[in-house]
Design a protein that fits this description.
The structure holds 2 protein chains of 2 kinds. The longest helix of chain A is centred in the middle third of the chain and has 18 residues, at 177-194. In chain A, 41% of the residues lie in helices and 22% in strands. Chain A starts with a strand and ends with a helix. In chain A, a hairpin with a 2-residue loop joins strand 9 (214-219) and strand 10. In chain A, the strands form 2 sheets. Chain A has a 6-stranded mixed β-sheet with strand order 6-7-8-3-9-10, sandwiched between helices. Chain A has a 4-stranded antiparallel β-sheet with strand order 2-1-4-5, with helices on one face. Chain A has helices at residues 46-53, 78-84, 101-111, 116-129, 134-137, 147-159, 177-194, 205-209, 229-233, 236-241, 248-258, 270-285, and strands at 3-12, 20-30, 35-40, 61-66, 69-70, 85-88, 165-169, 197-202, 214-219, 222-227. Chain A has 12 helices and 10 strands. Chain A is an alpha/beta fold. The radius of gyration of chain A is 21 Å and the shape is globular. Chain B is mainly alpha-helical. Chain B has 2 domains: 1-130 and 238-265, no CATH class; 153-233, no CATH class. Chain B has 11 helices and 2 strands; from the N terminus they run αααααββαααααα. A two-stranded antiparallel sheet of chain B has the order 1-2. In chain B, strand 1 and strand 2 form a beta hairpin. In chain B, helix 2 crosses helix 7, helix 3 packs antiparallel against helix 11 and helix 7 packs antiparallel against helix 8. The A-B interface holds A 13, 15-17, 51, 54, 56, 79, 82-83, 86-87, 89, 92, 94-97, 107-108, 111-112, 143, 157-158, 161 and B 3, 11-13, 64-65, 176-177, 179-187, 201-202, 205-206, 209-210.
Chain lengths: 286, 265
């Protein structure tokens, strides 16, 4: 699924004193199978942008073309669009409503009008995929689960619709570090296994740097930067001026480099940094 | 769609109506409603329309904003209009099947619809031009004399403040949950009444849960800051009457007087 966003513009509360421009002339091209990290400060327009991608919000002007289909066209059936593009909202556990976990996850597939066996299989697959034990949780009420488990069930509800593009809006907000790492790991697995397009919205560079193919940085409704993680992190000062940091470990490598030490600075994980520093120290000894 | 509801929604502007004392505005609104129900002839409506039009102009609230508040109540207005038109006996003007449109009915229908529209405009203007905090401050002060007979004025005012404060929050929440369920393929707009009612379950259950959660958290936060009712509480902004309040009150009373004269003399 390739996604092309062209000159997208969106204004909230038009013609009232609360009018705000949320998106201003946004253009992005996303290749098939690409893993995109969408990053920006609170209010930068990232949530507004992703809500356009499955037709929940309509743009004031501009186009969104998914696999050659312009979804901003009025004639397009939104059900089809939503089947192709799955959107996991911020704090998705707040939308849980069914009596059992099974029924809640099945809500999406039922709305797609699938056969019973198909639904059954998808629900099972989705629950297992998010790292929960199907037999253990399927008959539980979603409200008796822990916070992290609720989040997983809610994500499973969207994954069960088997979208070609999966968008996750801050999927790790408010989770403890362990749950955060687990969920990010599972998202990565999903991308590796199905080669689906994933758009991960976040305001934490640390979270996304090691996962994504490209980073899109938004600021005040506009695209500030697009590029591979190392390209984006080279502009550390610019990012800081937008109120965004770069991963601490990358800052360390940048500083070492500024001190005249010949190390790479396109590094986002501690393991890589360790290797690079040891490598440099080894070189020095010789 | 949900943002159309203007009742309880404040429109910030810098105008003399906004600056008026909330007590005067609340009382003036009551006088206005009373006057509206005393009116018997269209002639008296012109006084009221002139009065409300002047107030709207002074308040700097755009007319479109006020009209939008009528939209959700459009059906009720239409219903009143139809009932009055068909159910009043008199000189027949036109017949549709078993239904007669009479001259008196048409007169009555227009009369009632005008009354309803003016009623809604007047009351929504009060909430548009008065911030919820001021409004409840005013109510609390107005209820103060009744404290002696056991009316918990402060508690009532606090409850209203909280309720008003959460209208936009809950609307936002509804909007968010609706979008999230739409993303999972939920359909709120088509189907017959039963299907539509059923489709509200995925919206209402999470909404109630979040409302209870919010109430719980708020109560906890208030207690953590030692809230314990109105006893010995002082305020940062004391209400005081200015020239504009006397003038506004005076004009309102004049309108009431004019309407009374029109009705009884």
């Amino acid at each position: 699924m390739s996604i092309r966003i062209e000159n997208l513009k969106h204004v909230y509360n038009k013609n009232t004193p609360f009018e705000t421009i949320a998106l201003d002339d946004v253009t992005i091209a996303i290749e098939k199978g690409e893993f995109i990290g969408l990053i920006g400060h609170t209010g930068s327009g990232k949530s507004t942008l992703v809500q356009h991608l499955n037709g929940i919000l309509k743009p004031m002007s501009g186009k969104i073309i998914i696999n050659g289909l312009d979804i901003t066209d009025k004639k397009v059936k939104l059900r089809e669009v939503r089947q192709k593009v799955g959107l996991v909202f911020q704090y998705p556990e707040h939308q849980l409503f069914e009596e059992t976990v099974y029924k809640d996850v099945a809500f999406g597939p039922i709305n797609l009008g699938l056969s019973e066996e198909e639904i059954d299989q998808r629900v099972k697959e989705a629950i297992e995929w998010v790292g929960l034990n199907f037999d253990e949780v399927k008959d539980k009420s979603p409200f008796e689960l822990s916070g992290g488990q609720k989040r997983r069930v809610a994500i499973a509800g969207v994954v069960a619709m088997k979208p070609d593009v999966l968008i996750l809006d801050e999927p790790t907000a408010g989770l403890d570090p362990k749950a955060r790492d687990d969920i990010l790991e599972q998202i990565k697995n999903l991308h590796d296994r199905y080669k689906m397009n994933i758009i991960l919205v976040s305001h934490s560079m640390e979270d996304i740097a090691r996962l994504v193919d490209r980073i899109v940085v938004m600021h005040k409704g506009k695209i500030a930067l697009i590029g591979k993680p190392n390209e984006v992190f080279e502009k550390a000062e610019f990012l800081e001026s937008l109120g965004l940091g770069i991963p601490q470990i990358t800052t360390l490598m940048n500083r070492l480099k500024n001190l005249g030490i010949p190390v790479r600075n396109d590094i986002f994980t501690i393991e890589e940094a360790k290797k690079e520093i040891l490598h440099w120290m080894g070189r020095k000894k010789c | 769609m949900l943002r159309d509801i203007t009742i309880g929604q404040y429109y910030p502007a810098d105008s003399c109506i906004h600056k008026m004392d909330p007590r005067v505005k609340i009382l003036a609104t009551f006088v206005y409603i009373t006057a509206l129900f005393i009116v018997k002839h269209f002639v008296a409506y012109t006084y009221i329309i002139a009065f409300i039009a002047g107030t709207i102009l002074l308040s700097k609230v755009p007319l479109g904003y006020i009209v939008r508040g009528l939209k959700p109540l459009f059906l009720i207005i239409l219903f009143t209009f139809a009932i009055n038109m068909f159910m009043t006996k008199g000189e027949i003007l036109y017949q549709i099947g078993p239904l007669d449109i009479t001259k008196e009915g048409l007169y009555q229908a227009v009369f009632m619809a005008t009354r309803l529209v003016l009623l809604i405009i007047g009351t929504s203007l009060l909430t548009l031009a008065t911030s919820p905090i001021q409004l409840t401050d005013g109510i609390e002060k107005l209820l103060n004399p009744f404290k002696k007979i056991g009316v918990p004025a402060h508690e009532l005012a606090m409850m209203m403040t909280i309720a008003l404060r959460f209208i936009p929050t809950l609307l936002e929440e509804t909007d968010k949950i609706m979008k999230a369920q739409m993303a999972r393929g939920a359909d709120f707009e088509s189907g017959n009444i039963i299907n539509r009612a059923k489709s509200l379950v995925p919206l209402l259950v999470p909404l109630f849960i979040s409302a209870f959660r919010r109430a719980d958290e708020l109560a906890m936060a208030m207690e953590a800051r030692c809230y314990r009712g109105g006893e010995n509480r002082t305020r940062m902004k004391e209400l005081s009457l200015h020239a504009r309040d006397y003038i506004g009150g005076f004009i309102t009373m004049l309108i009431l007087l004019a309407v009374l004269i029109n009705r009884f003399f």
